[in-house]
Amino acid sequence: MKFINKIILLVLAVGTPMAGCDTDELHNRNINPQALNTVPMEYLFTAAQLGSAAGGSAGDNRYIDWRTNIGLCAYAIQQLSTATGGISPGDKYFDNVESYNAPWEFIYGDQLKNLAEILRQTGPDGFDQGKENLRNAARILRVFNFHRLTDYYGNIPYSEALKGITDQNYTPAYDAQDVIYADLLKELEEASAALTPLVSTNRNDQAFAAADLYYEGDIAQWKKFGYSLMLRLAMRISNVDLAKANEFVAKAVAGGVFASNDDNAWVGMAIGPSEWTNQNGISRAFATGDGGQPTTLSATLIDELKGPDAGSVADDDPRLQIFSRGINGNNDPLIQRGLPNGLDQGMVNDMEGVPANPGVNVSQTFSQMNLKLLDDDDPYLLMHYAESQFLLAEAAVRGIGNVSAGDAQTYYENGVRAAMQMYTPFDVIDNTLEVDDAAVDAYLAARPFPAASEARLEAIGTQMWLSKFMSWWEAWADWRRTQYPVLIPTNYPGNVTGGQIPRKLRIPNQEIAVNGTNYSAGATLPDEPVTKVWWDVK
Question: Which of 21, 463, 524, 534 has its CA 20 to 30 A from that of 431?
């Protein structure tokens, strides 16, 4: 693992459109202010990497994490819960404009804008030639960001997006999600194959290595990142395009996916020089006096971690002591208790038999997130090895991509071990977040891999869900595709989904106002939280 918790350079801030933009500002979303021949492309690459990892942009590192990753996704997939406070539309299925808008505004307006300029200026007609590795890494990162956007919203502007500077097209057409996925997979195949070993005497290679926050120019790691992302996208469409899933799972395996936790894409964060640029956006979203998001863990999560026998620690998941700091200072695993989703303060009072005055103190009654995961300079985990193992286990069970059925249990157990042992970078001082092999072995013995195929898929899906703690947007996508783990929706009065777990984000009103004709012709409609995107068919 090439993780270095270093101070990240204060990269060029990019103008990011916010909810109150007027029409001119919305048009400018397709015009790149960095389109200057004097701006080194490496700076834009660093900015795009940082924005992709920091939950917002080089100007606000917590925005998407606070509003969407946490506020909608973490609650919708029942790993966090809240009775009061915070931005939490996913807990009770309410509308929240900021949660809907944040990915659209920041990913288009920051990461993808910078990446589009890199590709324009390093391409055949650009001025900045000889930067093939920078260009191909940018192509992979572009796939990562477009993949995230289309999974949030369904059909989106893709082929015509971000062409205001080249084509003066400020109202791009929408592409169907199946078309987008086909091109994203093609881009991953081409870009991953085209990466070449760095030459120490090549100034372009030296500049790329210095700019690369993820792998410091390690091309072998970038290839694994590209092929692991290919595996994810191929399995994401496996319920709707099995032929393409077969093709690209096989290509991902042949190319070489993540092989251990050393390959995980960690991004170093730091206290300074700028809290808005260098600090961990998830941590800041939870920090008292900053985001102030509640840290209460869901009953669904705690119950899964405690196992079938709540009165014994023998079948406990070691991550119980990693995810939770306990209840009011007591981290005894036997007393850990999560808050059911979909309750307000009055409902919690009634559940606990406590009068409204004084009422239940939620933060002292239910398990809370471990603060060791929430330091402002904690690293940000973008993508991990455990996911690749779980996807390969699923492919083996389902016979996808020529992955051997006989390897399903091995992939599954590798994934469980990796997921439990990947948190040490959060806690480099006293190593209390380490899980040794004996603890993993005991867990696997207490909860063995099932024999029946559907039970195997449920086990894999549940472990994938657990492995995406803090990567809640991805856990939400996994759940929508697999329906595992089995979640019981809430039905809080006045919710906007009729008691269904949300399936997509609404497209921002500003986009509809400016690009309404293309929206009406091409968006995933009806544009409601219960509408499913193309690959969501379960």
Answer: 463
Residue 396 identity = A
- The Cα 117–Cα 397 span in angstroms is 42
Cα–Cα dist 458/384, whole Å: 20
Domain for residue 254, yes or no?
A: no
What is the residue type of 72?
L
Residue 174 has pLDDT above 70, yes or no: yes
CA distances from 63 to 53, 89, 284, 298, 409 (A): 12, 15, 10, 23, 39
**More reliable by pLDDT, 290 or 160:** 160
Model confidence over 368-412: pLDDT tens digits? 999 999 999 999 999 999 999 999 999 999 999 999 999 999 999
Q: Record the tokens describing residue 534, joined without a space.
A: 């193309």
Residue type (1 letter), 486: V
Whole-prediction pTM value? 0.93
- What are the structure tokens assigned to 184, written together? 């994203």
494: which DSSP letter?
Answer: T
Domain of residue 310, residue span: 299-373
In a domain, 320, yes or no: yes
The number of distinct structural domains making up the chain is 1
- Angle at which helix 437-446 crosses helix 408-420, to 10 degrees, equals 130
pLDDT tens digits, one per residue of 317-365: 999 999 999 999 899 999 999 999 999 999 999 999 999 999 999 999 9
CB 367 within 8 A of CB 252: no
**How far is it, in rounded angstroms, from Cα 161 to Cα 303?**
44
